[in-house]
Amino acid sequence: MLLLLGLQVQAHAQDAAVTGSVISEKGDFLQGVNVQARKAGSAAVIASVVTDEKGLFMIKQLAAGTKYDFTFSSVGYENNFYRNYLVKPAAQKNSLLIKLKEKNNQLDEVVVTGQGIGISKRRIATNVTSIKGTELEQLPSGRLDQLLQSKLPNAQIRLTGGQAGATSIIRARGVTSAFVNSTPIIYIDGVRLDNLNTVAALGGGSAQGSAISSIADIPMDNIETIEYINGGAATTLYGSDAANGVIQIITKKGSGGKTAVTAEVQLGAERSTNDFLHFKRTADLLFQNGLFQKYHVAVNGGKDKSGFSFSMNYMNSSGVQIYDQNNNRKIDFSSGYRAALTDKLTYENSFTYVNNKYKRNRNGNQGGYTGLWFAESGSSSITGPRFNPNLDSLSDADFAKMKDYVNEAERLQDNQITVNRFTTSQVFKYTPIKKMVIKATGGIDYRVMRDMMVQTNQYLTHTTGTYTNNRGNISNSERKYMGLTFELNGQYSWNINDFSFVSTIGGQFFRNEDNQVAYSGTNVRDGSRLVSDAAVRTANDYYLEVVNYGIYVLQNIGYKNRFFLDLGLRGDGNPAFGKNIGVQYYPKAGMSWVFSSEPWMEGIHNVVSSARLRASYGLAGNLPMAWANQRTIKLDGFGGEQTAYFGQPGNNDLGPEKTQTAEGGIDLSFLKDRITFSAGYYRAVTNRALFSVPPTPSSGEMQNQQFNVGKILNRGWEFHTTVVPVKTNDVTLSANLSVNTLYNTVLSSGGVAPFNLNGFSARTLQTVVQQGYSVGFLRGNYGTFDANGVLSSTVAQSYLGTTIPDLFGSMGLNFRYRNLSLFANADYQKGAVASDWDSQFRFNYGAGTEGIPQGEIDKNKRANWLSFTNMFVHKTDFIKVRTIGVTWGLKKLSAIPGIQNMVIGFTVSNPFNFAASPFDPEATISGSAQGQGGATTGGISYATYSAPRQFVGSVRVNF
C-alpha cells in the first residue's frame, strides 16, 4: 500500500532526489529493504539503495520531469511497486511512505547458497532455508549451532555437553558417512570456515570424552541472513566436500540512509540443569548460580552508492560450576562495507575478529578425579578418602566432609582454552553488459586455539590421597588453522519469447592448513605455568594440508515463469585422489513447476496462494583424508637411534565417497499465505563409502588404509507447516511444526569387519559400523537372567540399539499484541537409544542397584557389572523447550533526545526437558575413534554436563 505524502527535491540543475520511509503493516520501520529505481517501462536499474534502521532511503540524481518505477523488496515481505512516478522540479518536495506486507510464502526470495550467484527460489528444484538476522537477535546464545536449534525445520542439532566450547552433532538426512563427521561445511560471505566439530589430532579434549568445537567461536552478530541447504542436488556446486549440507552466513553491509546506532545490554542469571542428576545432593556439591552479561553496540549507515556496518560485543558468563570452572569471556567485532566503485563495478568486504577464552572442567573419560564421575558415577568410593557413594544417604556431617574434599579438588583445577580468530571476505561484482554479472570472491579464515591443563602436586596429592612432590605436570596443545578460499563465477540471464535462461559458470579453490603442536612437562614445581620449568619435557606435532579445486556449470531454463529445469555439473580435482582416479564429476538435474501460476488455477488464488512441485537428482561428496592415497614410510626412534617401518600402504584407486540423492516434494500456500505446507521424500545412497580397512596379516603392513568399499542408505520424509490463525493490525498468532522420518543402514561393508566409531574396548561398549545395521549402533554384552534373577548367559558384542533417531523435528509458537511479542520453540526426537555408563558405574561401585535383579546381587555381588550392558541402555526420546521469550517495543520516545525506539526483552533458555531416559539424551560423548573430523553418532552418556538454564533480560536502544 502506497501513500504519497508530498514531494521533496534536492537538485543540482535538473537533478532531484526522492526520499521516503518503508514500514510494515504493523507500523514498524523496516531496515534492509532493497529500493530500486528504473525509468518507467525500462528493465534497467539506474539506482539501488537499502533502507537504514529507521526505514529511510534516498535516491539522488533523478531527472526532474521524468517518470520512474520504484521496486521495494525484502526477505519475508511481498514486493511492492510504485509505477510511473513523476519526479517534479527542484522547487517542490517529494516523499514516499511505503508499506510492505509480511508473507510466509517466499518463492520469489533470492538465494545464493548452492547457486554461485543469486537466483529466485522458484527457479530451483531444491529447498533453501533462510533465516533473517532479526529472528536471531531475540536469542541470548552466541553459538551458531545453538542458535539454529529449532530454526532449521529439516535438520537436527544437538549439543553434546553443557560446557563452553562443547561440540555438537549436526545432521539432516541421516549419517551419509562412516568416516567423515556429519557437520555441514560453513561459509561466511562466500569464505569457507573451520568447522572442526570433534577432538583435534593433538589436544582439544579426549578421544572418547569432551572435545572442543570450532563452531563455538563463529561470530553471531552483524548477520543479515543465514541460508541452509541439506545435501543432495542442492550441494552439487560444492562437489567433493558437501554431502552433509552447507550453512552460509551473509553479513550486513550497511544501509542507504542516515547513520543509526544501536546499543544493547543483556543481563541475567544462569542455573544448572538438574533434571537428569541421579542424586539430589550433586547440585549442592558441584554447582553454583551464575551471572550472564553481554554488551552490544552496532553502527549502520551509508549513502546511495555505499554502506557500512559495524558491530562490537563483550560477553561474560561465570558458568554454573563452582569456582567458575566453566567461565566464558568472549570479545568480538564485525564490520561490513559495500561501495559502487563505478556504474559497473561494486565492492563488498566483511571482517570479523573473535577472542574467546573459557575454562573447561574435567569430565568424561579423562581419568583421575572428575566431578561428575565422582558424584554421579559412584567413583567417590574409590577416590581420595573413599566416601559412601550414595550421596543422598550420607549424614550431614559426612556430606560436609565430602563437600570440603570436592571444593578443594575443584578449586585446584586449572584448565583453560584461548581462541583467537579472524575471518575476512572480499567480493567484487562486475556488470560489463546488461544482465551479466561476474563475481570474484576471496577470503581467509585464521583460527588459533591454545588448550592448557595444569595439574599441581597439591592437586594430585589431594585427589589421590598420596603425597607427591614430583608429579606436577603441564599439558599444552596449540592448533593453528588457516583456510584460503577463492571463487570466480559469472552469470548471464536472457529471454527468448516465453523462455528465460540463467547460465552460470565458475570455479572454486580452497586450501586449508592445520598445524598442531602438543608439548608437556612433568615434575613441575607448583606455581609454574611454563613447560620449560619441567624436569622432563616431551613434544609432538601434526600437520595437515587439504587442497580442493573444481569447475562448475549451471543452466536454469524457465518457461512462462512457472516451469523450470535446473541443470548442473561440477568437476573436481584433489591431491588425495589416487593416480588412477582423475577428475571426479558431480551432475545434478531438477525441475520446479509453480502450477499455481497456471491459468486454470486463477479462479482459486484466494484459496491456494501458491503451489509448487519439485524434483531433483544430484551427487555430492566427502573427501578422503589428505594424502591418504600415498604409500609412506613411518620414521621413529628407538634407543636413541633412528628406525623406520611400513607406514600407510597407499591406494591408487582412492577417491571421494559420493552420495547420490533423489528427492521430490510439494510446497503449498493457502489463504494468502496464512497456511503454508511443505512435504518431500528423499533417498540418498552413499556409494564408494570410505572405510578404514586393516591390512592382510601376510602383507607385512601395519597400518589401516582407506578404501572406497562401503555403501550407506538414508531415506525419509520431510514435512514442515506454518499456520497463522490470527492476523490483524493489532494481533498476530502463528505456529510452526516440522516432522522428519529417517531410515539409515549400511547396505554393504565390502567385506570389511565391523569397526567402532566411538566408545571403549570391544569387551565393554562401542558404537559400531557393520553391514545390515545403522551407522554407529550400540554394541556390547547382552545378559539374560533366569527365573531367580541370576545372570544365566551373556552374548558378547551384541546389538543393543540404534543411536540415530527415526523421527525428529521442531515446533514453535509466536504471538504478538501490538508492540508486545511472545515466542517459544522446541524440538524433539524418537527412536534412538543410548547407554547410561554412569548408571553402570554406580552399580559397580555399589551406589545403587540400578534395576539389576536382587537375585544377581545376592549371588554375585557386583562382579558381573560388565556382563549385562543391555540393562543400562535406554530410549532417548525427548521433547526439549529451547527458548521462551517476550519482547516489548517502545516506539514513541521523542521526549528522550536522540532515541528512536527501545525494545525490552526477557528470554529463558532450556527451561523444560521431557525425556524417556534418566540421563540427558543429548549429553553424550562426541569423540571419534576415526580421529580428527571423524564420524560420530553419540550414544554414550558418561559424566557429561547438561547445558545450563539462562534467564536473561535485555534492553535494546536504537538511536
UniProtKB/TrEMBL annotation:
One of its GO terms (biological process) is siderophore transmembrane transport. Residues 121-246 form the TonB-dependent receptor plug domain. InterPro entries: Beta-barrel_TonB, Beta-barrel_TonB_sf, CarboxyPept-like_regulatory, Plug_dom, Plug_dom_sf, TonB-dep_rcpt-like. This is SusC/RagA family TonB-linked outer membrane protein. GO terms for cellular component: cell outer membrane. It is a multi-pass membrane protein. It is found in: Cell outer membrane. Its main location: membrane. Keywords: Cell outer membrane, Membrane, Receptor, Signal, TonB box, Transmembrane, Transmembrane beta strand, Transport. The keyword Transport applies. The keyword Transmembrane applies. It comes from the Bacteria.
